[in-house]
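Reopening this one. Same input as before:
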Amino acid sequence: MENNTNFRRFFGASLTILGVAVVLFALIAFLSDNKPVLGMSISKGEAAAPFFVGMIFLITGVNLVRDL
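Same output, byte for byte:
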């Protein structure tokens, strides 16, 4: 049981960190005014997809850690 708890804590923290990074990337891409971000040219409409994916990762990671 202890091993499962440590795995959930590690996986939840990893998803949370990944979610925050992807949401920040999406916000920077949204505000970049069609300039390349990390070598990718992303329009304002295309920045919505990584934002929603990042929010899903963030919420899932927080719920995994919180439910322990």
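So the earlier flakiness isn't reproducible anymore. For the record, The radius of gyration is 15 Å.
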